[in-house]
Structure formats: structure tokens, C-alpha cells
Amino acid sequence: MTGKVPTAHDLLRAGKATLGQAARGQGRLTRRQEYSASTKHALVEVARERFATQGYAGTSLDEIVAGARVTKGALYHHFKGKQDLFEAAFLAVEEAASARIRAVILTSDDPWEQAITGIREFLAVTRTEDYRRIVIQEGPAVLGYERFREQEERSTFGLVQDIVASLLERYDLPASMVQAFTRLFFGAMSATGSAVSLADDPQQASDDAEGAIVLVLAGIRSLLQSDGEHLLTAEELAPGLAATDTTEE
What we know:
mainly alpha, Arc Repressor Mutant, subunit A
């Protein structure tokens, strides 16, 4: 994360601007509610910056409340403790990443082009400091693997599901196969993002990953269109493979 660190005044003002937009659509918030939400927003933004640059273990609650210019009591009003605040920062990073990827996807109407541009943007996101440190490096250890996967699926899985559904909607495929492909693609993207983020040369790793994924998607597209837009089965791809007798003689 580069550039000037926002001041508490900047954070509170940003939080109030967001709340003002929400108030217009859902009824006016009281001044107390606005201040409470602005305080929470400031805490999350400061925590996000500190966790990204210093890591979870290297960040104290004292410096977070000092950065947000609020009291410890205000922090505990919104969060149970450091882990709870980290989870809020984690979700903020994930939601920002999903919004960034969706915005890029919407620049094209072609589902295959959307998939490629979405993948490219995702790989770019994994190279950013806050995503790499908070989501990939610290997330599993701080949240625990099950909670990490649960939160990751809340934000990222829906995006992958939309991409896959868009790719396959014109083909006559059972819903179970679409769901299986979504799971496979999500798992592959998650593992690829981790590999790129932790690589000695993230840019080269990203370029290699993008090339490999493009080849896979091209192969899938070719198979889908190879026989009247019918997805070939394993038996059709490799006749006799499924019937191979593996019984020892």
C-alpha cells in the first residue's frame, strides 16, 4: 500500500459521505448513528493499513485507536477484540477486490472475454500489499482455516459463480455440472492467487498463471463447441478409458 496514509479526519469524513448516501435511500440516520458508523469505518481503515504494512502480530490495538483518534472503549463497542477487527479489515479488502473485478468484467459483453479480464484483474489484486498480507498471508492463520474459507466464499465465490454461469448458460449442461465446474474454478483461482502472491517474482508468476488459465478456458470452449455445442464425456474424449479393466491378473 503506497501513498499518504489518510488522517482520522479524512476517514471520518469518508465514512459520513458513505452514510449520507445510505441515508437518502433508507431514511435519515440520527447524528449518533452517523458518528458511530463513522467511528467504526475509521477503525477498520486504520486497522487495514496497519495490518497490511506491519502484519497482525506487529500491530497493537493502542496504535489503531491512536490512528483513528478514538478511545479503546469505542473500539470495544464495535469489536470484541483484535481478531474481530482483523476480520472486519479482511472483509473490507475482499469486498474492495470483488468490486474492482466486477467493474472490469462489466466493460465487456462477451462472457469469455469477461472471464479473461476478470482473471487478469484478480491476479493484479493478489499482487497488492493489503490483499497479499491480510487475505493470503495472514488470513488463514488469524481467522482459522474454516473461518477463512467461509469468509472468502462469501465475497469471492459469488463472483466466480457469476462468471461460470455466464460462460456456460448457452450450453445444455446439468446444474450439477455447472456447480462442479464453479467449485473447481474457485479452488484453482484461490490456489493460483496464493502462488502468485507468495512468488519471488509475482509479475512473472501472474503472467504464467494467466497464460495457463487462458489455455484451459480455450480448451473448455473448444470442447463445448466441438459437437453441436455438446460437452464431450470422458468416454467420448478417451474411448475405452472408463471401461479399462484394472483388475490384477
